């Protein structure tokens, strides 16, 4: 719980950016967290950043405040009813390890979210999603520490305002709460979700006849590893941008010119269009300038080939946004948290 000064964040963000924090400390209990927040050095309007696995963050400069690294651990089956297990996981647990624990215990519902980096505590922040499942589909409640009031509050699903890569913790309550734990509602009887993307194809390719949450998890891991760069090898934070939502009319206009534009119905009037396609059409796929680049397999992922600065990655994202806007009149929005 020691407070360290002028601390390198390079091992603490998956982009591998060598930014420094003025102060850095970890907490493994709620008491440690409240002691840290009460420290005299951290009292006067200091900026605070709660850090999990650092897999959805881009540091564009040094952080002139305190970074609080969440190390809260523990997984507990807290309740069950006819259909569900209610499983509470501390915010500092590694998400993928929690997924594996759930699969081992036959708790079903998060197998499609296998191999997403980061911590349990961050899963509600942007309502993580992949392969047809989002956290909102399995979320029951969370407990969070209000930094100013020093109280612990419980949030249920209606309090969180979940949306595509959004929640109230990215908007109204940004940086106000430390998420302490999340309780997920996991099925006793599996409902397999294999219609999204290439899951079916992957199951066929590997000759998987029997459906199980373990087999689906393995198929998802195979697909992800085939196109997403491993941050241990090449720095990245997954999709840098969100897939934009456009009107049915706008999609119709684009299809007149480009024929098969990859898009999926978002609601009655709107479509989600593949940002990867927009970026590829603008010629960025595989682009590299210095050590900042656009991934050659999945151009929605920006990468650090070694020593790129956060500013260089950010500037590249700005150029991409401008070119997509100029060519298609569509404004890409960053998904990654820019610090
Ligand atoms: P961090 O990066 O540490 O933090 C992210 C934000 O949440 C920050 O604003 C931070 O302050 C805040 N925060 C973190 N923990 C807490 C807490 N306990 N209390 C309050 N605030 C907190 N995301 C997807 O949705 N789907 C994907 O398929 C996906 N694939 C990815 C693939 C790769 C290779 C990578 C590198 C990333 C991917 N991501 C994906 C993004 C990322 O893994 C998720 O957003 C993840 O939930 C971030 O977790 P983290 O612990 O690393 O958060
Ligand atoms: N595409 C191209 N060129 C490419 C790659 C893809 O045109 O080089 C087009 C294809 O038409 C493809 C479509 O883009 O069908 C979608 O690609 P993909 O299936 O790889 O998914 P995505 O929409 O790019 C989203 C999430 C991912 C998530 C996957 C799987 C966002 C911003 N990203 O990516 O989440 O893992 O779907 O569900 O919604 C993340 O948030 O960090 C992340 C990795």
Describe the structure.
- The chain has 339 residues and is α+β, with helices and mostly antiparallel strands.
- The protein has 3 domains: 67 residues, Uridine Diphospho-n-acetylenolpyruvylglucosamine Reductase, domain 2; 113 residues, Uridine Diphospho-n-acetylenolpyruvylglucosamine Reductase, domain 3 (2-Layer Sandwich), CATH 3.30.465.10; 104 residues, UDP-N-acetylenolpyruvoylglucosamine reductase, C-terminal domain (Uridine Diphospho-n-acetylenolpyruvylglucosamine Reductase, domain 1, Alpha-Beta Complex).
- It has 8 helices and 20 strands.
- A hairpin with a 2-residue loop joins strand 17 and strand 18.
- The protein is globular.
- Bound molecules: flavin-adenine dinucleotide and uridine-diphosphate-2(N-acetylglucosaminyl) butyric acid.
- Flavin-adenine dinucleotide binds next to strand 3, strand 8, strand 12 and strand 13.
Features:
single chain, 339 residues, alpha+beta, Uridine Diphospho-n-acetylenolpyruvylglucosamine Reductase, domain 2, Uridine Diphospho-n-acetylenolpyruvylglucosamine Reductase, domain 3, Uridine Diphospho-n-acetylenolpyruvylglucosamine Reductase, domain 1, five-stranded antiparallel β-sheet, four-stranded mixed β-sheet, 24% helix, binds flavin-adenine dinucleotide, binds uridine-diphosphate-2(N-acetylglucosaminyl) butyric acid
Q: Would you identify the CATH architecture of the largest domain?
A: 2-Layer Sandwich
Order of strands across the widest beta sheet?
Answer: 6-7-12-10-11
Task: Please report which band the strand proportion falls in: under 5%, 5-15%, 15-25%, 25-35%, 35-45% or over 45%.
Answer: 25-35%
- Which regions are unreliable across 5 or more consecutive residues at pLDDT < 50? none
What is the overall shape? globular
The first-level CATH class name of the largest domain? Alpha Beta
Provide the list of bound ligands, each named once: flavin-adenine dinucleotide, uridine-diphosphate-2(N-acetylglucosaminyl) butyric acid
Helix and strand composition category? alpha+beta
Rg for CA atoms: 21 Å
Secondary-structure element series: EEHEEEEEHEEEEHEHHEEHEEHEEEHE
User: Structurally, how many domains make up the residues?
Assistant: 3
Main sheet overview: 5 strands, antiparallel
The helix tally amounts to: 8
Distance linking N and C termini = 23 Å
The total count of strands amounts to 20
